[in-house]
Amino acid sequence: MHLAFLRDYHEALVLTLARTRPTIERGTVAEVTGLTPQAVSKVIARLLEEGLIAPAGVRRAAMGKPAAVYQLVPGSRWAIGAHVTRRALRLALTDLAGTVRASATTALPPDFTPDQLLSELSAGVTALLAPPDSGGSPRHLAGVGIGMIGPLDQATGTVRDAHRLRHWHDIPLADLATERLGLPVHVDKDVTAAVTAEAWRRGAGFRDAALIMVESGVGAGLWLGGTAHRGAHTNAGEFGHTVVQLDGPPCVCGRRGCLEAVHDRAGDPAAAAAVLGVGVVNLLQTLDLEHIVLAGADLLEHGDVYRRTVEHAVRTQVPRADWLSVEVTLAGLGTDTIAAGAAMQVLNARYGVPDPAGR
Amino acid sequence: MHLAFLRDYHEALVLTLARTRPTIERGTVAEVTGLTPQAVSKVIARLLEEGLIAPAGVRRAAMGKPAAVYQLVPGSRWAIGAHVTRRALRLALTDLAGTVRASATTALPPDFTPDQLLSELSAGVTALLAPPDSGGSPRHLAGVGIGMIGPLDQATGTVRDAHRLRHWHDIPLADLATERLGLPVHVDKDVTAAVTAEAWRRGAGFRDAALIMVESGVGAGLWLGGTAHRGAHTNAGEFGHTVVQLDGPPCVCGRRGCLEAVHDRAGDPAAAAAVLGVGVVNLLQTLDLEHIVLAGADLLEHGDVYRRTVEHAVRTQVPRADWLSVEVTLAGLGTDTIAAGAAMQVLNARYGVPDPAGR
DNA sequence: GGACTTTAGCAACGCTGTTGCGTTAGTTGT
DNA sequence: ACAACTAACGCAACAGCGTTGCTAAAGTCC
């Protein structure tokens, strides 16, 4: 029965509005979504039933019956995200609104095995769920998201061949973690998780965007047409290995003149940012994006320099910049972006607007 | 009532199969789409009613009742596509299968006005519909598609500022043409129309792809996640104006080292193709595509050289090329690609798999 | 010719959003 | 005070989608 898709779709539509706006009411939701007021009533009733939204008083207009106002209950659902790097595991507990409520970092052994990661992950998750001081423990945990370095296969949750980690070849991480934790697990590339963090928090206006990450490499998380773009083999976003200088300096990937190689050799942050700016303009020319989000530990160390330099490049180097509105911002969650984004991927899979094909 | 979306969605799903495969039958359609056989029966009944498919005998298996076989009726629906360049108007009459049944080219006056184009278009459309020899004239014309050089706004069908055409500033071309022709009109960028031609003819397996066009400039039409990617301002695909050589030769766009500038200065076709190959590899690194289609009059003049050179670049320059399967082909419709693709955009809007958001 | 296998179709059903209309909770005017 | 008006709300009947359960049809095999 595919009627369930319609229900979930409209429910997610209204919930997205509730997340994005301070409050919602029947009339405005009906206008924005195109649903009839009666249909919105039914959707709101279901969302109230699930505890996702709650009444928030009434709005008195000049005349007529006051409208009932509702708002999101951020604490009604939770998710935990994990950011796996070569040396550490960072966890973030996130509520339905995408706010980070707690986070923790633990070291990982050098050249750690899948089993070692799972142990740390399991311990970290239980620690986050039983906070030492806070009284009310989260009830509805939607699942756990894991953001990793590639390459991997997002559809099956398999790590193909994690770069510079010996024990990671064709590891079905999602299945292993689901079994170990007893929770739904979503495995994805770090950059895709990161861009999901921005998308989940900004809502429907965030349709075409890239999150540029500089952190032991240069990558990009792509959000195109309102959903994550992973490519045919979950390998999209290898933005640092695009050539910007034919016959330029050699890169670790074997080619010459890659953006990453030129960027890393620039010397000072301003020069590096200018190189990145060229890459960002290339991306804009190719994809016509509306939002550029800058992230990654190495970048955020000189966040302001990068933001100003990239914004200047966008303003001056993109032809017809007058009507090609582009917004350049720093990642709102800073160094928590990947871990929190991984959590939000779980929320997005369960409470986001679904795709009819089920992807 | 949004139930209509479900109906159209499933109908389009089955029709896509009918287009892509030689024949369809209830059982296999049910398997592929996930619908129940009973639901497929209802969908097939509707498609028969509309004349889009027709019975094509039965398939006798080793045992049991033979299965009823159906196939597409290509001539049941038609569309006309127009390719507008600075000097000529090329038209193509296309059937539901995406086969070009007739085409024509007429010259356009230098620096033509919108009204001059509409006159030529109107005359050309009526000429194509009343063929001198063929007896049966097409009945069901779904509409007319127009593929143009940008920049334009696809959502409203407005030409913002056609490059090097003086009379084309903020022209609501779709509205004007709809009024003049009395038919639905779809206006889009030439490269997007071109990639739609490939997508319509190849079906569901064509999910992440780029059509690279070399024809008075270098551009790319993007097909991502199963739909056209136009970007936030219908300006995606300005692939020729991505920098591949910092401080390289000056480009007409004002920057230096653009792919197009380097490509045009390469000298012989093989060297030019090698430059294009670097750009294609950049695109693959960024977007992880599965299909690269090469098109455009200037490229197809040396089609084989380009195809071999680009394929070689993809095989040798993409890291981990072993599992990143990429197919490099020449445009199946040759120089008709843009005009025919514009026609298929109309078919796709009416008979393609719809988007719940209505985009 | 009967048993078996596979496909097809009829009819009742559950669930979605829609439609029509009456109810409720306010403000405004007398 | 009380009626008139306004705007939001909700109940109930409804149309149309895919689903389910079952029966009929058209073949092959023994």
Task: Characterise the protein shown here.
The structure is a homodimer of 359-residue chains. Chain A is globular and about 70 Å long. The relative contact order of chain A is 0.13. With 359 residues, chain A is α/β, with parallel strands linked by helices. In chain A, strands 6-5-4-7-11 form a 5-stranded mixed sheet, with helices on both faces. A 5-stranded mixed sheet of chain A has the order 14-13-12-15-16, sandwiched between helices. A 3-stranded antiparallel sheet of chain A has the order 1-3-2. Helices cover 38% and strands 24% of the residues of chain A. Chain A has helices at residues 3-20, 26-33, 37-50, 114-129, 173-181, 190-202, 259-264, 269-287, 297-300, 303-317, 337-351, and strands spanning 24-25, 53-59, 67-72, 78-84, 88-95, 100-107, 141-148, 152-153, 158-161, 169-171, 185-189, 209-214, 218-224, 227-229, 291-295, 327-330. Chain A folds into 3 domains: 3-72, Arc Repressor Mutant, subunit A; 77-194 and 338-351, ATPase, nucleotide binding domain (Nucleotidyltransferase, domain 5, 2-Layer Sandwich); 205-334, ATPase, nucleotide binding domain (Nucleotidyltransferase, domain 5). The structure holds a DNA duplex (30 and 30 nucleotides).
Features:
Arc Repressor Mutant, subunit A, Nucleotidyltransferase, domain 5, 16 strands, alpha/beta, five-stranded mixed sheet, 24% strand, DNA-binding
